[in-house]
């Protein structure tokens, strides 16, 4: 079946699914394969649960007209999304970066939906499957799509840009994330810049944080951009006030008090304000959108447990985001501050060096106690009675319960695989 015909079927039913646990009536089920599963084997179950069609790539399973046989289910999903994006002919903003992608995407959506019908990436569905699924949730009444693009190796963003074909783009930052896949920091810059390269090749608009020299460098001589920063010469001027712990800013003589912690979130908020300004969202609506946005999913959350307050930023971590979070935490005024830091993953040959750097960097900061947990942090050499090291989460948990800590401010940060939010029950 060709993509045009499949798209006509999609338009009739307008909902796709790749997981039989979330099937809805009349879904199109795409039988994707993974390292440990074969979606073709679940096609029958999908149809029995209400799916209208099952798209499979193994003829053994295509036993009646409700099965659509294709050469490759994943490629078909991607081709359908690309065709649908062209069919809609709508405005799409794409964003990528080492840190802050999901928070920035959610902030942009919070601002733009004040004036437009928007669809944004849910959660962090930002890879070779997530981007197509996001595009397929957009329909004729969608005015602006906001697509988060993630990557852990070169050419991935280029590939996803060719599917999403964005009209506007923003890179949150270039940091020490996925160093193993990108082959180092230079690889990260090259990989993330694939978004700007795609936009330049198609004369599309680039949003630029004028405070970020690396972003400015990627522009080279390209003129089709919209800038934001603290200088009055930028297209949108935004000034940082403080972050103790919440970020407060000033825009167009308006004070905006966010519910986001850490100065590192200033650029994320600024991007959302600038993009809202570009799309003529009113200042009143921009202020409301930022002030009512509440972080979730272990990202910059503030949680109270008994007499303790916790800054939970445990969704993910890399050396850049870890240092930024620690800097902000160090500057918060509080009598007893405790950091719980978990290993940072996907650093490859740089893992030992980067963990040692963070361990030593802690000695310069205004933090009363730090608990380091994980194989890499446990192997670091630190000379401070205020820094405790634990090889496993279980060791940390056992110690925390014994310490019986009260009236403290905690920062909890680590890579997703560490799942440090589990420690909340022990605080």
What does this structure look like?
The chain is α/β, with parallel strands linked by helices and 427 residues long. It has 3 domains: 3-71, Udp-n-acetylmuramoylalanyl-d-glutamate--2,6- Diaminopimelate Ligase, Chain: A, domain 1 (3-Layer(aba) Sandwich), CATH 3.40.1390; 90-292, 3-Layer(aba) Sandwich (UDP-N-acetylmuramoyl-L-alanine:D-glutamate ligase); 301-426, Alpha-Beta Complex (Protein-Tyrosine Phosphatase, Chain A), CATH 3.90.190.20. The protein is built from 16 helices and 19 strands. It has a 9-stranded mixed sheet with strand order 6-7-5-8-9-10-11-12-13, sandwiched between helices. Strand 9 (205-209), helix 10 and strand 10 (225-229) form a beta-alpha-beta unit.
Compute the gyration radius: what is it? Answer: 23 Å
Poorly predicted regions are none
Number of E strands: 19
Summed up, the helix count is 16
Main attributes of the structure:
16 helices, Protein-Tyrosine Phosphatase, Chain A, 19 strands, 3 domains, 9-stranded mixed sheet, single chain, about 425 residues, 6-stranded mixed sheet, UDP-N-acetylmuramoyl-L-alanine:D-glutamate ligase, Udp-n-acetylmuramoylalanyl-d-glutamate--2,6- Diaminopimelate Ligase, Chain: A, domain 1, alpha/beta
Concise account of the structure shown:
The chain has 427 residues and is α/β, with parallel strands linked by helices.
Secondary-structure topology with pairs:
Elements: H1 3-13, E1 16-17, E2 28-30, H2 43-48, E3 53-56, E4 67-69, H3 73-88, E5 91-96, H4 101-112, E6 118-120, H5 130-135, E7 144-148, H6 156-164, E8 168-171, H7 179-182, H8 185-192, H9 194-201, E9 205-209, H10 213-219, E10 225-229, E11 236-243, E12 246-251, E13 254-261, H11 266-278, H12 283-292, E14 301-305, E15 308-312, H13 319-331, E16 337-342, H14 351-361, E17 369-373, H15 375-378, E18 387-390, H16 393-403, E19 409-413
Parallel strand pairs: 1-2, 2-3, 3-4, 5-7, 5-8, 6-7, 8-9, 9-10, 10-11, 15-19, 16-17, 16-19, 17-18
Antiparallel strand pairs: 11-12, 12-13, 14-15
């Amino acid at each position: 079946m060709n993509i045009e015909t499949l798209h006509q079927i999609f338009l009739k039913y307008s909902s796709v699914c790749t997981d039989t646990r979330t099937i809805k009536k009349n879904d199109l089920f795409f039988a994707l394969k993974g390292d440990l599963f074969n979606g073709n084997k679940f096609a029958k179950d999908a149809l029995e649960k209400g799916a209208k069609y099952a798209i499979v790539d193994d003829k053994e399973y295509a036993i009646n007209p409700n099965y659509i046989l294709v050469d490759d289910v994943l490629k078909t999903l991607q081709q359908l999304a690309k065709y649908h994006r062209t069919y809609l002919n709508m405005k799409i903003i794409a964003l990528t970066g080492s840190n802050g992608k999901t928070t920035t995407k959610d902030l942009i959506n919070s601002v733009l939906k004040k004036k437009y019908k928007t669809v944004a990436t849910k959660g962090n569905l930002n890879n070779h499957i997530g981007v197509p699924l996001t595009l397929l949730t957009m329909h004729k009444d969608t005015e602006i799509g906001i697509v988060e693009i993630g990557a852990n190796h070169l050419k991935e963003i280029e590939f996803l840009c060719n599917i999403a074909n964005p009209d506007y783009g923003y890179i949150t930052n270039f940091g020490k994330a996925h160093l193993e896949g990108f082959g180092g920091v230079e690889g990260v810059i090259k990989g993330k810049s694939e978004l700007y390269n795609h936009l330049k090749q198609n004369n599309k608009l680039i949003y630029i944080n004028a405070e970020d020299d690396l972003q400015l460098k990627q522009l080279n001589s390209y003129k089709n951009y919209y800038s934001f920063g603290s200088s009055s010469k930028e297209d949108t001027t935004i000034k940082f006030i403080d972050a103790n712990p919440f970020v407060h800013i000033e825009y167009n003589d308006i004070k905006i008090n966010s519910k986001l912690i850490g100065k590192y979130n200033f650029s994320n908020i600024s991007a959302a304000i600038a993009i809202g300004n570009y799309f003529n969202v009113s200042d009143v609506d921009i202020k409301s959108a930022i002030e009512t946005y509440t972080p979730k999913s272990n990202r910059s959350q503030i949680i109270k447990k008994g007499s303790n307050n916790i800054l939970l930023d445990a969704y993910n971590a890399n050396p850049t985001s870890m240092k930024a979070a620690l800097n902000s935490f160090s500057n918060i005024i509080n009598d007893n501050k405790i950091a719980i830091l978990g290993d940072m993953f996907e650093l490859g040959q740089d893992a030992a060096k980067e963990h040692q750097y963070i361990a030593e960097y802690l000695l310069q900061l205004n933090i009363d106690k730090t608990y380091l947990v994980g194989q890499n942090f446990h192997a670091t050499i630190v000379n401070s009675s205020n820094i405790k090291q634990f090889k496993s989460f279980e060791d940390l948990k056992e110690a925390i319960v014994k310490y019986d800590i009260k009236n403290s401010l905690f920062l909890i940060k680590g890579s997703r695989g560490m799942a440090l939010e589990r420690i909340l029950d022990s605080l």
